[in-house]
Predict the structure.
Amino acid sequence: MRASLIQIRVDADESVDSRRLRAASMVRDQAGSADLVVLPELWTTGAFAYEAFAAEAEPLEGPTYEAMAKAASDAGVWLLAGSIPERDPEGPLYNTALVFSPDGELAAAYRKIHRFGFDKGEAVLMSAGGELVTVRLPETVLGVTTCYDLRFPELYRGLVDRGAETFVVSAGWPERRREHWTLLARARAVENQAYVLACGTAGTHAGVEQAGHSVVVDPWGEVLGEAGAGEEVLTVEFDATAVAGTRERFPALKDRLLGLDPPRR
């Protein structure tokens, strides 16, 4: 299958409405060239534009939902539409990723579990999600994650236990920690014998330069494709069936012990 990672540029000089239209157009441009399209985290506002979260927060089925559902349908692609600042009807904000099917239906919504910022920013402005999310595609099972989640291997183990074969990561990762971005993406791929499709943003959010360098990694940790620092679309073809073959030939996951019943031999 083919995946296109849209490493969109997010800067304060472009309105949210304009960027939403532009992102939808970029998704439509992938018609015929991709089966799966991935957008970054909080690309409407910027992942570090904390002051914009409340002002630009949307209901789940708000303007970004509507624009991305139509773009997925028009392009005929599975779409991880990145994440939005979602305002729950009861008041809390969530960092919520949306997944659409090729007919424009919502296949899943994932509220980010690990919020970044320690005692400020996202960590105090947004509530934590509490559910792991997988989506079954014809070719593979996606495990949906967002940015800071990448630092928590237990989350990915949980997704593997739910059948995940391909991890998709929407992110707004800073340039100053770019080496961690690639290292962690490869580690999650190797330890779980899965593909990792990690899509970041370009540009600068609230003065924080973004890493870019979206990357696709195979189950052996080999980088199949990597973007540069600026806005671009990274399209990579990969064999989704290789996950099952890798796990069969090198069955390390069967030897897991901590927190599990001993494997049957």
Summary: DSSP finds seven helices and 15 strands in the chain. The radius of gyration is 17 Å.
